[in-house]
Amino acid sequence: MNAIFIYIVAVAVMFTCCKEAPKNNLSVDAKAIFPKGQLGATENFTGNAWNYGLVANDTAFTTLVGNVYFEPGARTNWHIHPAGQILVITDGVGYHQIRGQPVESIRKGSVVKCPPGVEHWHGASADTGLHQLYIVPNTEKGIVVWNEKVTDEQYKGH
Amino acid sequence: MNAIFIYIVAVAVMFTCCKEAPKNNLSVDAKAIFPKGQLGATENFTGNAWNYGLVANDTAFTTLVGNVYFEPGARTNWHIHPAGQILVITDGVGYHQIRGQPVESIRKGSVVKCPPGVEHWHGASADTGLHQLYIVPNTEKGIVVWNEKVTDEQYKGH
């Protein structure tokens, strides 16, 4: 009887230990669709933003596609895409702002359209990273013009 | 002692039942990024393919973006995009074939570029569904020209 009791306790403890771990920021990387890629240049980003190119610019598609993973708190500088940009958020939580408009919250499933020639920034929330696909169409018109950093006051202005 | 024994058995059974369910096709839907959307027309698809539009065609971006979830076994007809198509696979397993070339396996993280004017088909594997983002650039050149169905022999030819 004692042997059975000890066995049952052992089974109970085993299943307790094998429960799914609580979700945290580390789990975001584990379920990412793409590798992290290259760390973005410090002159164009605040914090760590990792770029993984998916479709290089060419004359057949004139479309640039890639993935950026923004670590919590990371964001782009203000910048302009001469032909506009489409963002598809595949996981996490973050922000997007067009110059002169309120900051908008974005998260898994959000789609952002920033019109041609309009200044904007985007990045992760303070607590949770952001996985975003970017699509830059009509690259014959230009890809990106980088401007100044998004200040902490602008970032926190949401 | 009997009461404790029954309690321990109950705990053991509880944790056994609460373990993460085995992955199956249903779990693919649970972790999808987008809603399923509209069922594709039977004249253009074999099986169930669900389309969820993300960016409608317009003159500012001239780029069509959306998500298709192919249920296991589902696939497009043969078709042509006059300006080409980019596919980004966000989950699942499937196939892509350009006319005259071997069938290629695609899965989470795969990126497919089908050149302008080239005939192709794509869809899910027989056992696992496929979640794909599609990007059709330069829509002023046309979006899609649908052709005949992919036969079971062509589908199984991988």
From TrEMBL, chains A, B:
Positions of the Cupin type-2 domain: 68-129
Name of this protein: Cupin domain-containing protein
Organism superkingdom: Bacteria
InterPro entries: Cupin_2, HNL-like_cupin, RmlC-like_jellyroll, RmlC_Cupin_sf
